[in-house]
Structure of L-threonine dehydratase:
Amino acid sequence: MLLEHYVKKILQARVYEVAKETPLSAARFLSKRTHNQIMIKREDLQPVYSFKLRGAYNKMAQLTEEEKAQGVITASAGNHAQGLALAAKHMGVKAIIIMPRITPEIKVQAVRARGAKVVLKGDAFNEALEHALKLVDEQGMTYIPPYDDADVIAGQGTVGMEILRQHPQDLHAIFVPVGGGGLIAGIAAYVKYLRPEIKIIGVEAEDSACLQAALAADARVVLEQVGIFAEGVAVAQIGEEPFKVCRHYVDEVITVNTDEICAAVKDIFEDTRAVSEPSGALSLAGLKKYIEREQIQGQNLVCINSGANTNFDRLQHIAERTELGEKREAILAVTIPERPGSFKNFCKVIGKRMVTEFNYRYAHPEEAHIYVGVSVKPDGDDRNELIHALQEAGYPVMDLTDNELAKLHIRHLGGGRTQGAYHEEVYRFEFPERPGALLNFLNHLGHNWNISLFHYRNHGAAYGRVLVGLQVPAKDKKDVEVYLDKISYRYWRETKNPAYQLFLCEPKLDLA
């Protein structure tokens, strides 16, 4: 009954008055590389460069004339905001979009350009949402949710309807990005009703996997923390209405990391010349992981490029991480003798592999710790063979390829040791990115502890990433995190991270 209900709503959805049927493009290079037939549903080609327009417009199409006269409102920092703005403009309805102050200016301007009024409120989505709901009560406007609504789900479900019409042949699986769950619920409802043999596989960023957590618990759960790299799917709890469908009709959920998402951005570009946002490439990253895990060949597989609203200045960070995501680069910490000719001998062991990065600073009269990037073949065995060859040659090696501290900060600070930074505690932070954010962070950090290390680098995202060293006397150590918790920024203690131990702290620090 649930599927039949949604299929009827999907067939009657009014999306094509403003949205368009997007093509199912063959990913020829990737298909050849994986020995499968991979197709990409091009939702990045919508007028707002995202599928969100479908759900927003269909929800508005169900409103009464009285509700339209009162206007519509939503809280969003991303694609839903642009979709609702365009839908409202098409219908001649007043729209107010509440966006967090950290929202990149490119998205604010895009919403304003489509005729909506933008109100910047708070540093996080919850504060924006609270203000939007307050205006609903005060002004009688209708709140248009981004995913947790049956009409929104039905609008998004037209993506699944188009996929089956465009590819009536055998189809092994459809890979769908998951944030709040509106898109995957709509696709699953339509596809499982008509073609139940097709697998519906959700893909989530590993640090915002709210659907995977809910399926494991068989109940909606709230994640304590949510990662922000793929901000379009950074949702702490799966929607109530989407979960009614997902708990029964989603076959599995695959999680992917930042490097795998970045590699998928590159794959989409090479096959379509489209630059997707991180959440837009999410489903392809999961598709590739599924192929590797299942070792399948000759199958028809579909993924969805859900959006292309990314800031240009994020591309540098994405490019840096792509080689790691493709497993074409190994990041290693190697100890070599501190004497002339050592680096040359090290390169002889590496052989014909290309050195992509090298960081070093003198720190010890006998041993040198070098931070080195080396090109490797993407099958995984080549990296292990390289490490084994170095160890056989007598070099102590530590693999930092999956170490976030090393990739975000150490590579820009390699060799920056200090003598005398006693009692140093090191923390990695994420904080809302906006003008004056660094000063505000330092004001919050202000205490009696000396700052012994500080590294910040803008990644073109809504959140800044900072590495901080604090000189904390032993008597205060128990109080540090109590104080940091009050700042309310996401953080990780990195004092015992091996990358920090090798490259930034005093030599021969006890790791115990």
The chain has a mean pLDDT of 87. The chain has four domains: 2-50+150-314, 52-143, 327-402, 420-512.
